Amino acid sequence: VGETGIFPAAYIHLKKATVTNRGPNETAVPLEDPIVTEVTSTLQEWALLWKQLYVKHKVDLFYKVRHVMLELIDLRRQLLSGHLTQDQSRDVKRHITVRLDWGNEHLGLDLVPRKDFEMVDEDQISVSDIYKMHLSSRHSVQQSTSQGDNNKQRHGEPCRVPVPHHLLVNLKSFSYNSIGEDTDIFFCLYDLREGKAISEKFMVRLNKNGGPKNPEKVDRLCALFTDLSNKDMKRDLYIISQVIRTGRMLLNDSKKGPPHVQYRRPYGCAVLAMSDVLQTISELKEEKDFVLKVYTCNNENEWYQVHDNIIRKSSTKYTAPSSNYGLIISLQLLRGDMELVRRENPLIFSKGVAITRKLGFPDVIMPGDIRNDLYLTLERGDFERGGKSVQKNIEVTMYVLYADGEILKDCISLGSGEPSFPEYRSFVLYHNNSPRWSEVVKLPIPIDRFRGSHLRFEFRHCSTKDKGEKKLFGFAFTPLMREDGTTLSDDSHELYVYKCDENTTFSNHALYLGLPCCKEDINSCPSIPSSLVFQRSSKETFWISTQLSSTKLTQNVDLLALLKWKAHPERVMDILGRLRHVSGEEIVKFLQDILDTLFSILDDNTEKYGPLVFQSLVFIINLLRDSKYYHFRPVMDTYIQKHFAGALAYKELIRCLKWYMDRSAEVVRQDHIQEAMRALEYLFKFIVQSRILYSRATCGMEEEQFRSSIQELFQSIRFVLSLDSRSSETLLFTQAALLNSFPAIFDELLQMFTVQEVAEFVRGTLGSMPSTVHIGQSMDVVKLQSIARTVDSRLFSFPESRRILLPVVLHHIHLHLRQQKELLICSGILGSIFSIIKNSSMDTSVQEEVEMMVESLLDVLLQTLLSIMSKSQSQEAVRGQRCPQCTAEITGEYVSCLLSLLRQMTDVHFQHLIENFQSKEELKEFLLKILCVFRNLMKLSIFPRDWNVMRLLTSYIILTTAQHLSPALHKNFTQTDFDFKVWNSYFSLAVLYINQPSLQLENLSPAKKKKVLDRYGDMRVIMTYQLFSMWQNLGENKIHFIPGMIGPFLGVTLVPQVELRNIMIPIFHDMMDWEQRKNGNFKQVEAELIDKLDSLVSEGKGDENYRELFGLLLLEKIEQETWRETGTSFVTSVTRLMERLLDYRDCMKGDETENKKIGCTVNLLNFYKSEINKEEMYIRYIHKLCDMHLQAENFTEAAFTLLLYWELLRWEERPLKEFLHYPAQSEWHRKESLCRKVIHYFNKGKCWEFGIPLCRELAFQYESQYDYQSLSWIRKMEAAYYDNIMEQQRLEPEFFRVGFYGRKFPFFLRVRTSSDLLLDAFACFTVSTVVMMFLHHSCHYSEPQGTVVH
């Protein structure tokens, strides 16, 4: 039988899910990507808050949140589609988390800690890691975007390789109407400051109609200028575009040359400043169009610098276009290595984009990047006129020829985007015997053809007569490689020009190759007979410049000599010494060859060449530490693992390394020693691999000798670190270099030794460092960074090594914390340790490690936190100098470290902790410290409001710690050893804990409340049970906390949680009972309870349920006491007071009329005076009532109100304390000031009849004091009042009597009449006031129980 339901099956999609707690309260968790689940639940939560934004008129945020919600829905859809690659999926998740965090912050929701874009389970990771994740999430929200993974390299690891930029240039069109010939357009990047191009050229060939010559390139005229570094992006860069036409000599003169003869001629130039467009294209993720005007050069002699003239706006040297036409290009900036760019932008590369490289190598040379490009610049020439009346039109033709005279094809490139040519023809400058071309040509010559090849330049005069002949009149040449095997140097070269004519053929190239090509070459040639075929033209010269970008050929003589050392074995010492002068680019290009050479030299004569080979090896290793060559470290690693064959090298390397270390105490200059220390990691890689090779070849022979030599080497390491470097800065740098490199050798040692053996090596080394923290701040930092990298190493992850290393690590941290030095680094180390311990918490060894940390760190952590918190508080008070040790970051770091440690502690750890105290005084000091730290965590804003995960976890750890420590408090400080300070500290913490905002579940949404209850329960109730239990354990010592703890406990009972109130309210009966036993009454409890109740209710705490529960529970307890009559009377009074206080609060908070608020205040004021006789509270409410009257401009009523306080005072000299806004003064002076104020208010209210008696009273006092000046003033005031009564007109008020009968009226109005109110307030209600009150209450209380009678 099929199942039936209310929905058609075709419209329902069942999601896979895990169901727990099956039944009516079961929970279903979907089996989908957690981030999809989070997006779903978050959007549901946002939807309610989003609508409220509109209601609250936050329209701008409303639309922003709407936009983000739509983006999240779209991103969620992309994830659910299942069509994304791993990289795309990761990118989508990154975008989702950024938007989730942004929305949560702006909507006032909690920050979500994440790892790899997913919410973390706080039970699975350490508190320190959770804290760091909160910081990371906060940073990503503040930045509004996140660049990939937020994991940071810590503790001084090598700097990251810079990310290259790539500029995409796309030629959309060249709109012109005046050329009408084929054109070549060249684009390049030009550095104005250096005055040279930094990139190859991108070439576009267009026909006379403006379209691509190659039809396949329609809409594909684009190039990618690659490998631009951050430094390049800060240069004064320009995009230079040069337009070269191919056609007649003169564009507008058809007579100059026949139409079939084509010349390359300069036409125009355009420039675009990168500084103007860089910000625009950096922000966009798509192409942006720009228009470039094409300017023509006024004088062809200055064509070589026309772009400079345009940039510098030398307008006399170029002509602007007559109409607004030119080049339309689009630009886009891409980031990342080329593989990533290819993956992320497949459409760009599908168009056949031309890869246009930098001239020379980029800042980061990638392994496997093979290049062999010779960039040749045709600079200039000086030629004779040759008997002609006008100057020549010179064209240069260049060929690349092999040793046998064969012209190499496809070895000349004018620019990327077009195929290579077998020959190159320069553009022609009209009538110019000293042309300056400055045209760059790339020669991609194969490696195997480079040696023996040469370049030949043929110079022709291009006639513009009818035949249009190109007459050969000279040539020049240059070989590409010298006799010593080095290539043509990167420099400008002046070449000799040899004469020839148009009939000359170069079939036998040997005829000129024996001639000198340049001035430098003439010394190597023998005496040249004058009868040769080619004669040099002494007055003509030709300049070129070259730049080689090759990973296979070198221009360096020293490097070539090293690679061919066997040809000159007697020069090996000198050759090795000169290796330091070889450039880094040359070394990394030939890295494997150089290393092979060095170790072959070492094998040839170890004793003779060992130290020099060692120095050379150190130099190369340190070269790879440079960020420019850092990517070649994998090449070095591959070489060591697969190509290195020096099986005997380890002996010499260990010997040299030990010799260097042993010399550190003697020599003054230690640069070479420091370099060796920096190269320690790769030296050990070579040592270990060499030993492995030797061991394989000999079946493990000389194992003991190897172990012994390593032991001796570590003795030397310990010797260097143990030296006192305070008096020697050089030695300090040596020790710092050693400590920086030391942790990098652990993995190599683990290949040859057991974990315990390596750990012993490391412990001995770290233990040899001076324990004092006064050796210098910089050395302290280096020492701790070395320890930090040790903790982060693979070695420390083994439990057997931690058992050995942890004591020495904790020893150094303990010393620094005691001295309050380098706190940030210490906290990082501790965070790493806690993270490892949390991940290894299943291991039995972890309990021992936690025990070790408790003994070493707990006390000093508490002391450090107290110090930091006190500095932080004083800093907030003073707002003076900024102290780096007092920042919120450092406080948060150490709080997370303390919480991590406490969280790892078990019952056994707490038991051992308590037992290890030598005396109760030590235990007391510890308890006071930890309770003080916990109280500060409650009071200070250590974690931001939206870090709810961190706040709840902190509360949970404090609760469990308090549960573990409370038995020790009860056991040691209860009876004869009672200590008020410790107990008071405990109770204060409990009160703060229960009242902290993050635990008030009533303020949370239902979903969030359920989540908190499921994970932690209601921690307030748990702490309340603990508090009640500890209170009961006090016994007769309870009296010490009366009345001090009444206010705090009352605050706890006002928390709106029924179970909590049921637990705590009976404590007040206990307090009354103990005071009754001691004093025969409970006046203190009564007074304190009433005082605190008033202030707490006025703060918004308490409700009607609390009032009823308070009376019910206490009356039930009191019934069994002998003092039940007084107790019942007191409880009844308090509940009645609460009733009035709640009415007063509701009245003040609501939109009630002023007269209703006044009536409510009068009611409360009378209760304090008549029923519970609390004079201080009575006076407070007198002043509150007075302020209300003044605000309503009821000056007469204000005066009558203040008279109530005035009547309580006497004309005596009794001193009075400072109270409200009154200063400390005598009772006489306070009554005098009050009297003056009341007289002033009667005057403003025009009730002079009531002011005159007060004037008389004051006059009598002044007269008795002989204060005639004041007496004169008051008599004049009295006289003025008489005048006012007679002369000024006043309205006669009318009075009404109004009664309020029924339970539905507020308590302060029930069964009262307005005349009662008038008498109480010494004021009168006008007709309008009474009518308003009547209308108000008749509208709101129209039920039968409430009747208004008038």
UniProtKB/TrEMBL annotation:
<dbReference type="Pfam" id="PF23554">
    <property type="entry name" value="TPR_DOCK"/>
</dbReference>
<keyword id="KW-0963">Cytoplasm</keyword>
<dbReference type="GO" id="GO:0031267">
    <property type="term" value="F:small GTPase binding"/>
</dbReference>
<dbReference type="Pfam" id="PF16172">
    <property type="entry name" value="DOCK_N"/>
</dbReference>
<dbReference type="InterPro" id="IPR056372">
    <property type="entry name" value="TPR_DOCK"/>
</dbReference>
<dbReference type="GO" id="GO:0005737">
    <property type="term" value="C:cytoplasm"/>
</dbReference>
<dbReference type="InterPro" id="IPR037811">
    <property type="entry name" value="C2_Dock-B"/>
</dbReference>
<comment type="similarity">
    <text>Belongs to the DOCK family.</text>
</comment>
<dbReference type="InterPro" id="IPR046769">
    <property type="entry name" value="DOCKER_Lobe_A"/>
</dbReference>
<dbReference type="Pfam" id="PF06920">
    <property type="entry name" value="DHR-2_Lobe_A"/>
</dbReference>
<dbReference type="InterPro" id="IPR043161">
    <property type="entry name" value="DOCK_C_lobe_A"/>
</dbReference>
<dbReference type="InterPro" id="IPR027007">
    <property type="entry name" value="C2_DOCK-type_domain"/>
</dbReference>
<dbReference type="GO" id="GO:0005085">
    <property type="term" value="F:guanyl-nucleotide exchange factor activity"/>
</dbReference>
<dbReference type="GO" id="GO:0007264">
    <property type="term" value="P:small GTPase-mediated signal transduction"/>
</dbReference>
<keyword id="KW-0597">Phosphoprotein</keyword>
<dbReference type="InterPro" id="IPR027357">
    <property type="entry name" value="DOCKER_dom"/>
</dbReference>
<dbReference type="InterPro" id="IPR032376">
    <property type="entry name" value="DOCK_N"/>
</dbReference>
<keyword id="KW-0344">Guanine-nucleotide releasing factor</keyword>
<dbReference type="Pfam" id="PF14429">
    <property type="entry name" value="DOCK-C2"/>
</dbReference>
<dbReference type="GO" id="GO:0005886">
    <property type="term" value="C:plasma membrane"/>
</dbReference>
<dbReference type="InterPro" id="IPR026791">
    <property type="entry name" value="DOCK"/>
</dbReference>
<feature type="domain" description="DOCKER">
    <location>
        <begin position="1169"/>
        <end position="1350"/>
    </location>
</feature>
<dbReference type="InterPro" id="IPR042455">
    <property type="entry name" value="DOCK_N_sub1"/>
</dbReference>
<feature type="domain" description="C2 DOCK-type">
    <location>
        <begin position="371"/>
        <end position="549"/>
    </location>
</feature>
<protein>
    <submittedName>
        <fullName>Dedicator of cytokinesis 3</fullName>
    </submittedName>
</protein>
<dbReference type="InterPro" id="IPR035892">
    <property type="entry name" value="C2_domain_sf"/>
</dbReference>
